[in-house]
Amino acid sequence: MDAAAQPPLPGLVPTAGQQTAKVVEQVRMARDTYRLRLECPELARQIVPGQFFMIREQGGSDPLLGRPFALYDIVSNDDGDPIGVDFGYVVVGKLTSRMVDWQPGDSVDIWGPLGNGFPAPPAGHLVMVAGGIGQTPFLAVTREALGQRQYGSPPRGISTRPEKLTLCYGARSEEYLAGIDDFTTDGLQVRVSTDDGSHGHHGLVTDLLKDLFRDSPEPTAIYTCGPEPMMEAVAGIAAEHNTPCWASLETPMACGFGICFSCVTRIRLDDGQWDYRRTCVEGPVFRAEQLQW
Ligand SMILES: Cc1cc2nc3c(=O)[nH]c(=O)nc-3n(C[C@H](O)[C@H](O)[C@H](O)COP(=O)(O)OP(=O)(O)OC[C@H]3O[C@@H](n4cnc5c(N)ncnc54)[C@H](O)[C@@H]3O)c2cc1C
Ligand code: FES
User: What is the distance in A from the centroid of ligand 1 to the CA of 251?
Assistant: First the structure.
């Protein structure tokens, strides 16, 4: 393993270390969407579902800043020891356009784990609502909730498990659906919607969530990630049913570990006022009712 661990970054995230990681493989998942596997055992040992890491090209200055990506899953060796991380990305701009050309053996800078992550899975019926590339944090959530994998160092103890687990996943069209095979596992029900009706329900992913509330058992908790208008709609449905909801924001970030304040979001306070919170440190996962959409 030649991922060179360096001292933790200065600042507010004592567990976050910067490392050089090697690209292990790159796989196309869907249109403009890829999965990258990086060799980085330190990070893989520590990270939990819903946390993220920052990635930057080595020696490059354009883009100068790293970019945040959520954990898709950790990768373990034959002995079960974590040795790397997978993340999924969609090509949107400067860095993601260049990532497509990364080859096995290339070195990249990576720092993490960053952010808070999703809470440990609750009992009852946990529903995950994903839009577009917002499905990526939910593979690790699923595997943890089903007891298929442990995360964190020491592994975080899971005292409850959901009796039912559902993923509602919406995409523009069938060709953008990414990772469906990964999510095909006993214990997880996957419901899909596409904007153009080319796969699954023809319409919005929030229609699927409304259907779930008509079915039984009702959701007892909702985790959501995707475009903000979608998450706001999900939060609204959750609020109508008094169902706890956590949203993972994809706010653009510069440092990722709390010092630049480029990632702030508005949070409602108990006294009815609002204040800013840094998505990279106090998030990216927030109680949806706290968010000032
Ligand atoms: C905590 C977190 C986790 C994330 N996880 C993933 C993931 O798992 N997979 C994934 O594909 N993406 C993820 N993202 C979004 C990802 O960071 C951006 O897509 C990436 O920074 C784009 O970099 P770029 O250099 O290719 O684009 P840029 O050249 O920086 O930007 C291209 C265009 O995209 C816009 N843009 C850039 N970032 C964002 C953003 N976060 N929200 C809205 N518009 C944006 C810019 O304004 C610009 O118009 C995550 C973001 C956060 C904050
Ligand atoms: S990205 Fe710098 S403070 Fe959050």
Answer: 8
pLDDT of 16 reads 64
**Ligand 1 center from residue 180 Cα (angstroms):** 22
Full set of structural domains in the chain with CATH: 5-113 (2.40.30.10), 125-290 (3.40.50.80)
Q: What is the pLDDT of residues 228-274, one digit of tens each?
A: 999 999 999 999 999 999 999 999 999 999 999 999 999 999 898 99
On whether the CB atoms of residues 288 and 247 are closer than 8 A, the answer is: yes
Residues 17-30: tens digit of each pLDDT: 789 999 999 999 99
What does the block give as tokens for 79? 């002995």
Ligand 1 pocket: which of 92, 101, 225 to mutate (most atoms within 8 A of CB): 92
Whole-angstrom distance, CA of residue 205 vs CA of residue 69: 22
Q: Please name the residues in contact with 227: beta carbons below 8 A apart, sequence gap of 6 or more.
A: 131, 132, 134
Task: Calculate helix-pair angle for 228-240, 205-214, nearest 10 degrees.
Answer: 10
pLDDT for 2 beyond 50: no
pTM: 0.93
pLDDT digits (tens, 9 = 90+) for 67-116: 999 999 999 999 999 999 999 999 999 999 999 999 999 999 999 999 99
CA dihedral 12, 17, 20, 23 (to 10 degrees): -90
Contact 267, 223 (CB under 8 A): no
Q: Is the CB of 26 under 6 A from ligand 2?
A: no
From ligand 2's centre to the CA of 14, what distance in Å? 15
What are residue 102's phi and psi, to 5 degrees?
-65, 135
Where b means 16+ CB within 10 Å and e means fewer, 88-121 reads bbbeeeebbeebeebeeebbbbbbbbbbbbbbbb
